[in-house]
Amino acid sequence: MRKLELAFREAESPFHRMTPSSKLLYIIGVSFIAIFNTNIYVAVGLFLFTLFIATFFTKVKLRTYWSLGKVILPFIIILMVVFPFFYGGQATTGSDEIAIRTPIRDLTWADLGFGWLLALRFLALGIAGLTFAFTTHPSDMVQNLSKRGWDYRLVHAPVLGLVLFPGFIEMGREISITQRIRDLGQDTNFIKRKWVRMKHLAFAMLVLGLRNGQTQAMALDIRGYGAHKTRTFMRPAPRSRAGTVFGWTFFILSIIYLVYQWSPETMQWNMDFS
Amino acid sequence: MARAPALVVEDYSFWFRIPMGEEAEPALEHVSFEIEQGEFVLVLGRSGSGKSTLALNLVGIYPDYFGGQNQGKISIAHPERGLINRREVEPGERFQLVNMLFQNPQDQIVTLSVEEEVAFALENYLMAPSEIHPRIDQALDLVGLTGFRERSTMKLSGGEKQRVALAAMLAMQPRVLILDEPTSNLDPVGTSEVLDAIDRIRDRVDLTLVVIEHEVDAVFDRADRVLLVEGKTVHGPSDPRRFLDERGLEVRDGLGLWIPQAVEVGLELREAGIPVPRIPLNGDELVEDFGAYEGSIDNAVLAADNEVHVARREPVIEARDVSFAYDEDAVLKGVNLRAYANELLAIVGQNGSGKSTLAQMFNGILTPAAGTVLVEGKATTDYDFAHLVKRVAYIFQVPEKQFIRNTVYDEIAHGVRTLGLAESEVEPRVEAFLEGLGLLDHRDRSPYVLSHGQKRRLSVAAMVVAEPDVVILDEPTFGQDYHQAQRLMQLLRQLSDQGAAVVFITHDMRLVAEYANTCAVLSDGQIIFEGAPSELFDAPELLARAKLKAPPIHAFSRRLIGTSLLDTDELCRRLKEIYDAKTRTGV
Question: Is the entire prediction scored with pTM above 0.90?
Answer without folding.
Answer: no
